[in-house]
UniProtKB/TrEMBL annotation:
GO terms for molecular function: aspartate-semialdehyde dehydrogenase activity. Pfam families: Semialdhyde_dh, Semialdhyde_dhC. Pathway: Amino-acid biosynthesis; L-methionine biosynthesis via de novo pathway; L-homoserine from L-aspartate: step 2/3; Amino-acid biosynthesis; L-lysine biosynthesis via DAP pathway; (S)-tetrahydrodipicolinate from L-aspartate: step 2/4; Amino-acid biosynthesis; L-threonine biosynthesis; L-threonine from L-aspartate: step 2/5. Catalyzes the NADPH-dependent formation of L-aspartate-semialdehyde (L-ASA) by the reductive dephosphorylation of L-aspartyl-4-phosphate. Keywords: Amino-acid biosynthesis, Diaminopimelate biosynthesis, Lysine biosynthesis, Methionine biosynthesis, NADP, Oxidoreductase, Threonine biosynthesis. Phosphate binds at R97. It is an enzyme of class 1 (oxidoreductase). The gene is asd. This is Aspartate-semialdehyde dehydrogenase.
């Protein structure tokens, strides 16, 4: 495969290259793409140096697959240009997620929806991916009615500038601010921009994306998204009300048997998921599994995952792997020429 990584110099882009290398994704030619600011920079993949190129040159090279992690505006403008030359785009931004003509994919749940005609495929929001992976087997068994989620999100979810802000603050250095307030020793109930309804865009992604991924609008999700000064992963407190009652041992079994989930849940040994353990791992970790004693058929869980891995790069590479394994990538313009 001729593969373009768009946003290769960014936080997600860097992990994307690691994940492609670790999983030995079949790459015959690699194009590393970023903004004009980075054109000419050198990046290393599998011990080989590659020079960063611009978007127009990458389109002209007609890659088979382009994995975008370069913000919504870049995706809106450039993903269709790649699609036009036959490239299959897997996009990490929010640009296409709720477009009814685009698939929103967590491979363990709905990769089977993908076809060769899907030229722009959306990767869900990082906080959505880890939550929906845990909700899917439980929804199938007990049928969800309502989910209340509060997130504790890592600064790495905002990108390079936010990590720099946190590090500068911790070191007492005056620097550029990615957030309107200090993040070190703080908690900001503010992830992404505020919308007219008083929620943030991140909270509305958590509310809407699970319905699309699970192809079911009979349940609802309400969210509060909070940024905290961690760098290793996002954590979520998730309260789920089901239509049907459940057995806690069966809930644990269903979750442990789900591909991509690791249950870490033993109060006697202080075993529960935390960002320091999830950091650098591809799995989604679930713990603090307990009954909500204030309401029937309701469960509490704590879900943690590395937002740059399963929340972004790993999920995108898994989509690419599914496309290759199922022969769904065919750059027709290349085939014609
Ligand atoms: N961080 C996460 O946990 C996470 C999770 C899921 C999805 N995402 C999404 O992934 C995307 C990237 O996030 P990030 O955290 O990696 O941000 P980041 O660290 O700020 O990196 C942004 C990347 O996009 C490139 N870029 C920016 N403007 C561009 C343009 N006009 N043309 C070409 N390339 C451009 C940058 O290139 P330069 O270095 O040249 O500026 C850089 O490579 C965003 O859409 C974000 O919403 C992030």
């Amino acid at each position: 495969m001729k593969v373009a990584v768009v946003g290769a110099t960014g936080m997600v882009g860097e992990v994307m290259l690691k994940v492609l290398e670790e999983r030995n994704f079949p790459i015959s030619e690699l194009l590393l793409v970023a903004s004009e600011r980075s054109v000419g920079k050198k990046l290393t993949y599998k011990n080989e140096e590659h020079t960063v190129i611009g978007l127009a040159d990458a389109v002209a090279a007609q890659p088979d697959i382009a994995i975008f992690s370069a913000g919504g505006d870049t995706s809106l403008e450039w993903a269709p240009k790649f699609a036009e030359v036959g490239t299959t785009v897997i996009d990490n931004s929010s640009a296409w997620r709720m477009d009814p003509s685009k698939k929103l994919v967590v491979p363990e749940i709905n990769a089977s929806e993908l076809t060769a005609e899907d030229k722009i495929i959306a990767n869900p929001n990082c906080s959505t991916i880890q939550m929906v992976l845990a909700l899917d087997p439980l929804h199938k068994k007990y049928q969800m009615k309502r989910v209340v989620v509060s997130t504790y999100q890592s600064v790495s979810g905002t990108g390079v500038k936010a990590v720099e802000q946190m590090e500068n603050e911790a070191a007492g250095i005056d620097g550029e601010m990615a957030y309107p307030y200090p993040i070190n020793r703080n908690a900001l109930p503010h992830c992404d921009m505020f919308l007219e309804n008083g929620y943030t865009k991140e909270e509305m992604k958590l509310a809407r994306e699970p319905q699309k991924i699970l192809d079911d609008r009979t349940f609802s999700v309400t969210a509060t998204a909070v940024r905290i000064p961690t760098a290793g992963g996002h954590s979520e407190s998730v309260n789920v009300e089901f239509h049907n009652d459940f057995d806690l041992a069966e809930v644990r079994k269903l979750l442990s048997e789900t591909s991509g989930i690791v249950v870490q849940d033993n109060p006697e040994t202080n075993t529960y998921p935390m960002p320091v353990f999830a950091n650098g791992k591809d799995d989604v970790f679930v713990g603090r599994i307990r009954r909500d004693e204030t309401q029937p058929n309701t469960l509490n869980m704590w879900i943690v995952a590395d937002n740059l891995r399963k929340g972004a790069a790993t999920n995108a590479v898994q989509i690419a792997e599914y496309l290759v394994e199922n022969n769904l990538v065919s750059n027709t313009s290349e085939a014609i020429s």
